[in-house]
Amino acid sequence: VMAQILEDRGFHGNTTGNIELLDAIFAEIFSRTGQSDPANTNLVGDYFDGDGIGQIALDALRAAPGTTFWTNWKNKFSSETEARKNRDGTTSSFFTRGTNTPFNNRNWLVGGYLDGWHRVPEYMHPYLLIAELEQKSIAARRKKIGFCWDMLEGAEWKIYGQGSFQNIHFDTPAGDIFKSTLNGVPPEMMFRQSVIMQLIGDGMIHWGAAARTSRDIGRWIRSYNGGFNTSKTKWRKQGTTQVVDYNPNDPTMPAKSPGDNPNNYPGNQVQIIPPNFYGPTPYGIHDALAGRWMAAQVIGKSSLMRYAPGATYKINGGSAINMYPGGTNPRTGSLGDATVSLLNNRNAGQNNIVYQCEAKKPIHIVGGNPGNGFILWCNPHARPNEVNEVTFTESGTHTFTAVGPAMRLYNW
Description:
The protein is α+β, with helices and mostly antiparallel strands. It contains ten helices and 19 strands. Strand 17 (387-393) and strand 18 (397-403) form a beta hairpin.
């Protein structure tokens, strides 16, 4: 709510006074919790608070292996001081901003919008999200709550910002309404995001999860994509090629609906545009919920999650390939092991996820112990029918098989 107030007050224009107000409100709310440590509360900021920590999709996509970009990114995991730095080397304002510094009174909201495939390519997303969570765990003992929405907002890319136009035909008056709707996030990305946030993060918030939806393509509102405006709802009269802005006051066009259930249109009366069709059915939310359910089945076994040791994999029955760029064992951190950095396990120096991303190798994490553990597996670069046969050694040798790039959870 406060983030929305901030935007409404002109966040992107006059920022200083508005941010100070937001920080002061958070400080007051935190003081009323009676807690001394924000990590003991569920107070979270907004997706502006992250600054440049973690948000590097395009850089990671463009940079050639072995270049300075990768060296700098790996170094961000070396210490608390480095982990708090933005891409440009400055310390994140989460730790330095004003009198009511965010670090002193709230946790992190992680991820922001999945803006579009151009910025978050599907195969890059799991690496980037895990890396952001681990870096922020090293930077501060604060909860990391995922921001989840099943639409591609496209704030900085007009192709996605415009969405896709869908149409519905009307008989009276005869013609077609075209409505701009946002593009959906690929379901697998939603599933991966949810699993990762539940196991490596500290939970999720779903934007618009309770929005009214309809599975009936014939039920429409004026454009959901940014609300009703003439640039996003169009009309084409039957027999013509001219597309014009929809005008709800023009009697030659379909009228707006006064109610929620205009299922039956009287005789020859002008047809009306129903109010509760939410663009494409937000199918991604179901995959996010499935990911949360899957993670819930193993979360009690998630102690000491770690990058799997003694690991190799074969592609379609070929020769064994080392799991990590440096061999079959992962790199270790300040705790002397390869455990994943979490809220209560801050393992500075353990930066395996960046190496895996650079080398385009799989993500292979285990939790718990044999007989009461689980395996988190994802090879984002695998082809749809590619078979990966995986072997790792910990309290014995273990083998499993995964097909395609989907994220998977196995009992171990």
